[in-house]
Amino acid sequence: MKLYLDHAATSPILDESLRVMVDAYREAYANPSSAHSFGSDVERRGKQAKKNILKHLAGKPKNLIMTSGGTEANNQMIYSQSVKSSGKAACFLTSSIEHKSVLQPLEHWTPKESVHLLKVGRTGQISLEHLDEILEKEGKRLTFVSLMHVNNETGIIQPLQKAVEIIRHKSPEAFIHVDGVQAFGKIEVQDLIRSIDAYSISAHKLRGPRGLGALWIKNPDKLNPLLHGGDQEYGKRSGTQNSPALLGFEKSVIKAYENLHENHQKRLAIRETIIEEIKSSIRDTMVIEVKDQQVPGILLIAFEGVKSEVLLHSLETEGIYVSSGSACAARKDEISHVLKAMEIPLEWAEGVLRISFDETMTTEQILYLVEKLTEHVQKIRKWVKR
Ligand code: PLP
Description:
Elements: E1 3-4, H1 15-27, H2 37-54, E2 64-67, H3 70-81, H4 83-86, E3 92-95, H5 100-109, E4 115-118, H6 128-138, E5 144-148, H7 160-170, E6 175-179, H8 190-193, E7 198-202, E8 213-217, H9 243-258, H10 260-281, E9 285-288, E10 298-303, H11 308-316, E11 320-321, H12 327-330, H13 337-341, H14 346-349, E12 352-356, H15 363-385
Parallel strand pairs: 1-11, 3-4, 3-5, 5-6, 6-7
Antiparallel strand pairs: 2-8, 7-8, 9-10, 10-12
């Protein structure tokens, strides 16, 4: 059996979205910037696709700047706010559990001393007390905030409504960006959108095409381009637009939100069954979660006395594909920065698996996963004891 349980790394494209893209590549292939009517038709259809995506965000097509993915959206946002691009002195705030596509550009474009790193509690949620403390000192000087909506390793939803309230109160001038790559299409984001300035999304995390994402921005005048050239995307992101992929993305977003509640409930039931079955078959396990603040499709579970890389590769021999943390950190033999920030004890952190799935996972697949997990965890624990 082939069992792909790494949806948080990337999700398989929906058949319907793929069909829409194939048709568009065949029939609607004109460049949307071309002066002829074939080009204008493609441009018009692209705008309509943006409008349909924006039904779950806010604003008009000019508020949604298409990029090559979440990484580029985050990079552009951070670059745009850096001293190099904006000419303004920078005083930034982010958290210690952000995705590398936020942390690394910050490191690259901003002096270390102008970035404040918000701590997280053991629960994996940003500390609002620490936020208060930082803003007490830096309140008026703070220029830019970048925080994630849902963490990609734990699936834990961050308390952003409260954080934004505090920031707006103490740092009214600060620009607030949210990395919504793991949230969009999994939860409603419109309430949050109303109170922030920018939001990054990515198509391949919600069963859309690879290599397409977007930056939603309330006031596009505040965004500077990272790529210069033909002035596409309202001059904010040059490069011939991938119109067929945009139509695929539109379809995936429509589908994700059409069935949001139903899919959430199905994923929750699958999650609960997996946890129950694992707990009844394998001793010394720990689920890392915040029960009512969790996207159910990401399950982070630790097995004491087991190295996650060893377990990951043993499961691979059974056709089961999971992750030992985030895909970016997974190839490096080290504890992820998220688990470190959460102060998960080493003996647990070393044995963490991320199992990420969607609502299509069947009972037969759950039972196969748990059977193989039990077998391999026991085998590895025996080897380690010897
Ligand atoms: N932000 C988060 C929270 C992510 O999980 C990811 C991808 O794993 C990204 C950003 C980067 O997105 P993309 O793969 O579309 O570049």
